[in-house]
Amino acid sequence: MTVALIEGRGLVRRFSRGLDAAEKLARVLGANISEETVHAVEGVDIAIRQGEVLGLVGESGCGKSTLGRLLAGLLPLTEGTLLWQGKDVASLSRSEALEMRLAVQVIFQDPMSSLNPRKRVVDLVGEAPRVHGLVRAGEVDDYVAELLEKVGLDPSYRKRYPHQFSGGQRQRIGIARALAVKPRMIVCDESVSALDVSIQAQVINLFMDLREELGLTYLFISHDLSVVKHISDRVAIMYLGRVVETAPADAFFAAPNHPYTAALLRELPSVKERRRAFTPIRGEIPSPLNPPSGCAFHPRCPRIFTPCAQARPALEPIADGHLSACHLNAAASAPVTAGGSA
Ligand SMILES: Nc1ncnc2c1ncn2[C@@H]1O[C@H](COP(=O)(O)OP(=O)(O)OP(=O)(O)O)[C@@H](O)[C@H]1O
Question: Keyword Coiled coil, does the record have it (predicted)?
């Protein structure tokens, strides 16, 4: 079996939600209020092979970005183990850890928005490779020009400032910036969500061309299944901090298993079904401050039955490479007893 490029075992990330001013005052006045824990990622196992595109999908707040940041080493783990090419990241030497940090780059929704608006593109893109010795100071200008060309921008744009670009162009500069440190994997965190549909398609095509050319691996995070549908080799669905289903993309779209996945897919508009009524998933997303007992999806699940509120279903294989965390699978495979079906 080939070793995954990156693997997380039992990943957990919790945040403590501090008290707001009113709550602090209430506590001073004697109210029994303590800081609460946000269960952002709770026991996720995930492995991504070299060259693979894994689409990670789920509703807002389910923990996708937190998981992406954990994998990129941008956030420390609360619990669990992260392996880079089979080696525990906690045991990497300083230079290996830096190598990994550069090898896994994250591209956010608008990567340029957090950058110094007074710096020109040549500095924004060229700084990291120069600092890390990937390119000599005298070669930065040519290096950035080449990168801009690679991402479909005119090399002369390197003299410009961030505010002089459109959303799609800014995203391309963000991609050039990530590529500048020669990554092996890119975490795309809602990287195309803010773009118009036609620009989205162009940027997705660029990601896929770069995958071919550079052998890149992607974790493609999106709240929108239609975005990941055409580019993912495999899809993982998150719900309230956990992966509830993962499968090769073909199997996933042909035969989704988890009721949450089925509900997400029903929301997917398709050309044929444009006239069909929109069916949002019923109910509110529960708070990660206080996740429901048992299966976290049970309060919204149309197929709820006895065990769902009591026991958390494990993520179990249901077909080759296809795993799902739903009690219905165990019920369906339970032996039929003399008294009727189990
Ligand atoms: N630094 C933090 N401090 C406290 N809570 C946090 C922090 N970062 C994330 N969270 C909380 O963790 C949960 C998961 O957030 P996360 O951003 O990972 O979800 P997401 O699926 O990426 O959502 P979105 O698509 O809206 O970004 C949310 O409840 C969020 O408010």
Answer: no
Cα 138 to middle of ligand 1, angstroms: 41
- β-strand pairing of 79-84 with 6-17: antiparallel
Q: Ligand 1 within 6 A of 61 CB?
A: yes
- More confident site: 111 or 295: 295
Residues 197, 191, 177, CA angle at the centre, nearest 5°? 125
Residue nearest to atom 7 of ligand 1 (CA): 15
pLDDT digits (tens, 9 = 90+) for 288-341: 888 899 999 999 999 999 999 999 999 999 999 999 999 999 887 766 554 433
**Would the CB of 288 count as within 6 Å of ligand 1?**
yes
Q: Is any ligand 1 atom within 6 A of the Cβ of residue 60? A: yes
Atom of ligand 1 nearest to the CA of 69: 18
- Per residue in 112-136, pLDDT tens? 777 788 999 999 999 999 999 999 9
Specify the residue with its C-alpha closest to ligand 1, atom 3: 15
pLDDT the model gives residue 241? 96
Q: Write down the pLDDT at residue 300.
A: 93
Tokens representing 296? Answer: 């976290």
Q: Are strands 316-319 and 234-239 parallel, antiparallel or unpaired?
A: unpaired
Distance 262 CA to ligand 1 centre (A): 24
Give the nearest ligand 1 atom to 62 CA: 21
CATH 3.30.450.40 fits 6-19+36-112+165-333, yes or no: no
Q: What angle do CA 151, 157, 163 make, to 5 degrees?
A: 100
